[in-house]
Design brief:
The protein is built from 3 helices and 6 strands. By secondary structure, it is an alpha+beta fold. It has a single domain, classed as Nuclear Transport Factor 2, Chain: A, CATH 3.10.450.50.
């Protein structure tokens, strides 16, 4: 009985550095994904479809605040629309939840700009799902919901 307890304690001590190493790796990946969220905002604000192409999975499923469903091609076309001029897109209160080679990010976004010659301003919650494909994180799905002020 005593030797069993000693073995359990030894195993616990041996596993602690591994758990700490895994936690540090998770924090590093979490930080990277949150930075990618901000890069997405900048790319969308600047209509940089080349940057967006690298951030979004080819199989992207995008559900916009109005309930419309877009694939990657439709989303990219919406970003390039000449009637849309976003002036500011920022995130706040973001949290990334890691699940191995996947992550779910939740947060709040604020966007303002001009669409069809009229100013707009909106605030909403979002949920994005990121997957690691061959060492590169890409967003596979995104959903947003407006928050009424």
């Amino acid at each position: 009985m005593r030797s069993g307890m000693v073995i359990c304690v030894l195993l616990w001590f041996v596993s602690m550095p591994l758990a700490a190493q895994e936690a540090a790796h998770g924090d590093s990946e979490r930080t990277k994904i949150l930075a990618l969220e901000n890069a997405w905002n900048q790319a969308e604000q600047n209509k940089d479809t080349k940057a967006l192409d690298g951030l979004l999975a080819s199989t992207l499923v995008y559900i916009d605040y109005d309930g419309s469903l877009m694939d990657k091609a439709k989303f990219m076309a919406s970003v390039k629309a000449p009637s849309l001029h976003p002036e500011q897109i920022v995130n706040e209160s973001m949290t990334a939840y890691m699940y191995g080679d996947s992550a779910v990010v939740t947060g709040i976004y604020r966007e303002k700009g001009v669409r069809n010659g009229k100013p707009y301003s909106r605030r909403g919650r979002f949920t994005d799902t990121w997957v690691n494909q061959g060492g590169t994180w890409v967003c596979a799905s995104s959903q947003s919901t407006l928050i009424s002020n």
